[in-house]
Design brief:
Blueprint (H helix, E strand, L loop, with lengths): L9 E4 L6 E9 L3 H6 L2 E2 L10 E8 L6 E10 L10 E8 L1 H13 L3 E2 L4 H8 L5 H12 L3 H11 L2 H25 L7 H20 L1 H9 L1 E7 L5 H9 L17 E7 L2 E7 L9 H16 L2 E7 L15 E6 L13 E2 L8 H13 L12 H19 L2 H19 L5 H9 L6
Helix pairs in contact: 4-5, 5-8, 6-7, 6-13, 7-12, 12-13
The protein binds the ligand Nc1nc2c(c(=O)[nH]1)N(C=O)[C@@H](CNc1ccc(C(=O)N[C@@H](CCC(=O)O)C(=O)O)cc1)CN2, guanosine-5'-triphosphate and magnesium ion.
The site of guanosine-5'-triphosphate (GTP) has 24 residues, from helix 9.
Length: 437
Amino acid sequence: MGLPSLNDVIAAIATPPGKGAVGIVRVSGEGALELVSRLWKGTNPSQLPGGRFTYGKICDPNTQEVLDEALLLVFRRPHSYTGQDSAELQTHGSPAVLRRVLQVLFELGARPAQPGEFTLRAYLNGKMDLAQAESVLSLVEAESEAARRQALRGLSAGLSQKISRLSEQLFDLLAHIQAWLDYPEEGVEPAQIQAGLEPVLQEINRLLATAPAGRIAQKGARIALVGAPNAGKSSLLNALLGYERAIVTPIPGTTRDYLEAPLEIAGVPIVAVDTAGVRETHDVIEKSGVERALQIAQEADLVLYLADQSQPHPTPPPLPWERTLKVASKADLAPAWHDPSYLRVSSQTGLGLEELRQQIHRRLLGEAPEGELWISNERHVEALRRAQTQLQEALQAPEDLAALSIEQALEALAEILGKDVSEEVIDRVFRNFCVGK
Ligand SMILES: Nc1nc2c(c(=O)[nH]1)N(C=O)[C@@H](CNc1ccc(C(=O)N[C@@H](CCC(=O)O)C(=O)O)cc1)CN2
Ligand SMILES: Nc1nc2c(ncn2[C@@H]2O[C@H](COP(=O)(O)OP(=O)(O)OP(=O)(O)O)[C@@H](O)[C@H]2O)c(=O)[nH]1
Ligand SMILES: [Mg+2]
């Protein structure tokens, strides 16, 4: 398809569809201010310095009809979001006003902006790199505190700086190896290659290790509640939610199909899934409920395995134990067994619930300190994995091949920042944006 032309004037509504207190129409490109001046009654925007706003009226230049009273924001290149001359018309937030203003801008020669095209221009004009542009998208989509924090870290160029630093280290190393290949008598020792590669590889490994937590911070997590019938799974779901979502009875086998409920733990959006109690059964309905429960556990980010502490310990079902938190339920009753690897919880008294929330949070996001950089974008994970593989190969290879592998690792790192990437990559990134961003 090819990237859209960079210089023509584009326009789009930047505020969400529907009524609002204020609505914004964005315009950007060569001649944007002259174009806007033709529908503006007030201080001529072509004469306004950048970074200013002015109050006036928006008029249809054909009929002189007043469309709205508005504020006009003027940005002059390169001091704008896109790096180009840009303007914002801030109108009353009526869909009728916004549509009409946009239509007049199109009649005056602006063209509709494609999804993400303002941010695409910011990237192409060097206002941000590709990883930052992706963070803009993540930030717009962030619906939880964890997702917002995560996206903002990316926006503030943390990742970009780290990748640039790693690349510089590799470039230095490459220069040494090349010198050694050309003039073996004055070059590096192979041991020095290893010493140069290892810290870079370690840092890449560390970044990749943050990917599961990064993904969860961004997209949230699924937690399955699993255990024998009557273990107290539905009661625990209700206790975590703070309202009676699931049916609870003393009859084993109450929950037959699974049930999902959204909640938030320490800013992370979570879908908790209550499942049918797992036991041997010939009841066809219950049997498929049990199969589903085990399947849901396999697919969950975290499993809570509940065992009733007031009853003899049941035989645990097959579960992904490395992702499972063991919970001894009904801790308010006299215990029939003790096992320190279980967290004691009572849905009835609330005992252990806060500790459970903390452990869930820790298991999902790990112990990574606040402010630490996390990878969450699949494209970044994939590129880092390629760099990791290449550098591991470089560690094993003779010098000339090591140089080749390092070059390929460098290419993978450059892709994260969007240096020398194909239009296809750019297209894939910006396709997910909304119009007006
Ligand atoms: N009304 C409005 N609010 C908004 C945006 C916008 O475009 N319009 N933004 C858009 O997403 C975000 C803010 N991001 C922005 C980033 C850079 C520039 C900008 O004009 N930068 C210039 C000047 C900087 C300065 O004056 O210090 C520059 O980088 O040179 C504007 C907005 C969020 N809020
Ligand atoms: N004393 C006490 N009773 C509990 C507690 N949690 C659950 N119960 C009781 O245990 C019984 C079963 O609770 P449920 O939450 O329905 O158990 P479940 O694991 O969902 O059971 P199924 O849906 O049949 O698999 C009910 O009578 C609850 O009142 C608890 O913390 N303390
Ligand atoms: Mg139940």
